[in-house]
Structure formats: structure tokens, C-alpha cells
Amino acid sequence: MKKYLVLFFAIAAFSSCSSNTSIVNSWRDPDVTIAQEQFKKVLVVALVKDEASRRITENRIAASNPVFKTSYQYLNATSQLSQEQKLKVLQDENFDGVISMRLVSKEKEVNYVPGTYTGMYYGGFDGMYTGMYGYGFGNWYGMYSPNFYDPGYYQETTSYMVETNVFSLKQNKLIWTGTTESQYVTDLGQTVDAIMQAVVKEMRKDGSLPPK
Fold first, then answer.
1. Nearest Cα to Cα of residue 20 among 155, 160, 156, 153
2. Contact (Cβ atoms closer than 8 angstroms) between residue 163 and residue 199
3. What average pLDDT is seen over the chain?
4. Fewer CB within 10 A of the terminal residue: the chain, N end or C end?
5. What average pLDDT score do residues 197-203 get?
6. Rounded to a whole number, what is the distance in angstroms from the first to the last CA of the chain?
7. What are the DSSP calls for the chain, one per residue?
8. Where does the signal peptide begin and end (predicted)?
């Protein structure tokens, strides 16, 4: 039953967007791998306060494969239930795995980008004075006119640290966790894709998933 390996993390090939996301750290249970679990029905949980962001995140992952199911479809009506009761709901629905994603921190960093100078004063002619004498002010001025200075500026970068966890419901324990850092975030959906790409790459590296 090797097909589930491809199905489980098909999200890795879901996006072709360029990524500013990288793995900061990760851990896996040394006694079990994702491959060994043979997940057939996995709940996707985005632990964010904003309901719209939660649904975008869960839908983005769930859309990659029918194995993934969004948590808001199953747990939104169980807010008054205890943790044990919620777990029973998932067991009754035949879930055998959970992927959770949560924002750990959001940090802003300000960096100074120095100015740049572009022009033809040096290297624009065969020599500094070649062609300057004997041709009047227009030609002499032309050596300087293309010179421009682009002033420096301060750039604010926001880094998002996101923790992704994989749980086995059959064993009722965490079997993999990893933290990613994402910068220059402009689109939530593409960032989710980039995070999952980084996660899959790390899982293949540590043996949780087989190599390509």
C-alpha cells in the first residue's frame, strides 16, 4: 500500500511559488515514521483565532488530497465538549491522524538598505578624459548627466514562526514536529504551501518519509 505515501503529503508539489520559508528546528519520534502509520483519514487543524484565516489555511491543505479533512467541519459544534470527548468524536469518525499548524511568534525587524550609485563617470568611456576635450560643454556634461544616486532606506521585515505537528490517533501521541520561519509574507495560501513544502523536505531528510 505505497500509494498513501504519495497521497499523504501531495501538498509538497501543490505550489510552484517561490518560498521565503525555511525549517528552524524539527523532531521526530525515533520509534515510528509517517510511512509506518499508513494514515487513511487525517484531520487538519489550524490553531488561529481568526476564523477566516483558519478556514483558508485548512482548506488550502485539505484541497490537496481527499485524505485531509478540515477541523471546522467536525469540531466547530463540539466547543462545549471536553478534550476526551472531542477525541472520541474523531475516533468515531475513523480519523487516524492529525496535522496541526499554529503561529508561535510574529517578530518585526528593521534593516537599513544602503544607497546605490550608478553612472558613466568611471568606465563609461575609454578613459576619464577621452572625448571630453575639444567637443564643447555638451559632451563634457554628458559624462556626468547619467550619474544617479539612489538613496538608502529602512526596510521592515516581519518573520512568522509556525509550528507544524503530526499526531497519531491510533497511538495517541505526537510523532513529528517542526518549526518554520516565513518572511515577506503577502499571501496566506501561498505561505501555507511553502510551509508544507519545507515540512515535507525535512521529513524526507530525517527519514519520516521516503525520499523522492
1. 160
2. no
3. 78
4. N
5. 92
6. 16
7. --HHHHHHTGGGGT------EEEEEEEE-TT--HHHH--SSEEEEEE-S-HHHHHHHHHHHHTT-TTEEEGGGTTGGGTTS-HHHHHHHHHHTT--EEEEEEEEEEEEEEEEE--EEE-STTTSSSSSSTTTTTSHHHHHHHTTTT-EEE--EEEEEEEEEEEEEEEETTTTEEEEEEEEEEES---HHHHHHHHHHHHHHHHHHHTSS---
8. 1-19
Q: Which residues pair with 95 in a beta bridge?
A: none
Contact of 119 with 142, CB cutoff 8 Å? no
pTM of the predicted model over 0.85: no
Neighbours of 142 (CB within 10 A): 15
Query: For the chain, how many residues are written?
Result: 212
Task: Tell me the C-alpha distance between 12 and 64, whole Å.
Answer: 9
Residues forming beta bridges with residue 47, ordered by sequence position: 102
For 72, the grid coordinates are 471546522
Which range of 29-33, 109-113, 125-129, 176-180 scores highest in mean pLDDT? It is 176-180
Q: Is the dihedral of CA 28, 29, 33, 37 positive or negative?
A: negative
Angle (CA) 173-177-178 rounded to 5° is: 175
**Mean pLDDT across the stretch 63-87?**
85
